[in-house]
Input
Amino acid sequence: MKQGLLIAAAVAITLSVQANASWFDGLFGGEEDTATSTAVESTTPAQPVAAQALDALAMVPMLTDSLGVTEQQAQGGLGSLFSFAKGNLTQDNFGQLSSMLPGVDQLLGAVPEVSETASQESGSSLGGLLNTAAQYSDSLQAVNQVSQQFQALGLEPEMILQYIQVAQQYLNTPEGQQAKQLLMDGLSGLGS
Output
């Protein structure tokens, strides 16, 4: 908890210093320097993402590039993960996560519908076992729902962990730590 507060304070101080520097540059005619530094920043790919630049939709191209999935599969899979997290977090915590990661609502809209009959028909092997077990446990029912949503997108349920890893990678910045922690709390029980 103390470490999280220290990280949040460091981020706030860093952002405050950057905001004040920009204000002083504008006040004292440092616009040329600002334009030059902006051009350098935009061409440096290893720079951390600024807090206001975090966006849930930025994970979509990461998934399409690294896993070879379609944009629809990337959005639907991420939406399934955020839907699962929404069911496991308090309304306030999920509200915080959504405000830190704009685009979550759009991803939630991409979650495929899974009918009750579809869940009963996938009675072979692991899917059938999970369906049977889900009848007795709410948490297994939620895991089963995500698995079925991935299958409805044409994805193997084993890819759920790969999607989680890409989300962790995207949020593994100083600015993304709080969102990462909230998301991982919401995804606990999903195999992470």
